[in-house]
Amino acid sequence: MKEFELINRYFKGRGITRRDVDLGIGDDCALVSVPENSQLAITTDTLVCGVHFFEDIPPRALGHRVLAVNLSDLAAMGAEPTWVSLALTLPSVDLEWLEAFTEGLHEIAEYYNVQVIGGDTTQGPLTITVCAKGIIPKGKALTRSGAKVGDWIFVTGPLGDAGLAIEARKQGLNITPENKQDVEKRFYFPTPRVAAGQVLRGLATSAIDVSDGLVADLGHILRKSNVNATVQVEKVPVSEAMKATLSEQERWPYVLSYGDDYELLFTVSDTNKSTLANKLKQYGVEAKCVGQILAGNGQLELTLRGQKFALPARGYEHFSNE
User: Fold this and answer.
1) Which of the listed residues 59, 78, 110, 124 has the most CB atoms within 10 Å of its CB?
2) DSSP 186
């Protein structure tokens, strides 16, 4: 199968068709119409085999995951996801693999009303680059720079499961089959908090998605907002699978530093705290308060039951030798 045959079979004409797409797959560029008084949010991620996913990851899971991580970025800005383009580099054309991969991709795209509008295919080491777009009412975007002294810090769900899934495979951790299945699902099929992100608009003061770990990602907010924070680590939500597998001391590096969870981490004023919690519950999201913003210049203090807590591990960073 040649390149254009591949595109026609697995991408053109599949998935949803949005009314705001004027020209989709099949030309030099796609054309879309952006609503009046809206801003276009654009995010791009590259996933490389052996770096971001295991070589034997189920292709349907990979199709889901490559789009989910981009939708999570849009959610962190409060955007409504709309369009996506995909650059797919393949070692060879494996029809069975492609069918499963595109099934996973189109499933999540349809669920969030996102249309695949273009991209590229080429031959080489398995690498997938996704450029996702979304729309936000003008001036309503959430950023990392809005946290204010006195704001409360919330996270939308349990952290550390993706890291536990990865290390269970690498280290052979003593984990039950049921718990292993639960954490692998969190890693293979992350759920972007798209609805929650839109609820945060106008209520939260800053937001970010937890891709590199709570400590690293909260650090981005603190530096951009020029504030400090304190986090009570015992309040950070964890899953039952995590509790059953690791002791409290063992779990902290996973919960605070591992990343790949794609929950939203956000700040909210005391005035909006209750309103936001109630609105999120309408979408099945029970955000947990884990700390508070303080005056300062970008420093984070961790405490465990009132005592200072030191965590040497950091979030994932490309090109780091550590």
Assistant:
1) 78
2) H
The annotation places the binding site for ATP at 119-120, 144, 211
Phi, psi of 215 (to 5 degrees): -65, -45
Model confidence band, residue 319 (pLDDT cutoffs 50, 70, 90): very low
Joined together, the tokens standing for residue 145 give 């720079």
Q: For residue 10, name the pLDDT band (cuts at 50, 70, 90).
A: confident
Residue 318 has pLDDT above 50, yes or no: no
Q: Which residues of the chain does CATH 3.30.1330.10 include?
A: 3-137
Q: Where in the chain is the domain with CATH 3.90.650.10?
A: 152-308
Antiparallel, parallel or unpaired: β 31-32 and 21-23: antiparallel
Query: Which H or E element spans position 244?
Result: helix 240-245
Does the reported pTM lie above 0.70? yes
Question: What is the chain's length?
Answer: 322
Binding positions for substrate are 52, 260, 316
CA distance 211 to 170: 20
Whether 321 shows a pLDDT value over 50: the answer reads no
In this structure, what token pair is assigned to residue 295? Answer: 């005056």
Does position 190 have pLDDT exceeding 80, yes or no?
Answer: yes
Average pLDDT, rounded, for the chain: 92
Q: Is the pLDDT of residue 59 over 80?
A: yes
Other CB atoms within 10 Å distance of the CB of residue 63: 24
CATH no. of 152-308: 3.90.650.10
DSSP 8-state symbol, 172: -
Fold that domain 3-137 belongs to in CATH: 60s Ribosomal Protein L30; Chain: A; (3.30.1330)
3, pLDDT greater than 80: no
Annotated binding site: 28, 43-45, 52, 73, 119-120, 144, 209, 211-212, 260, 316
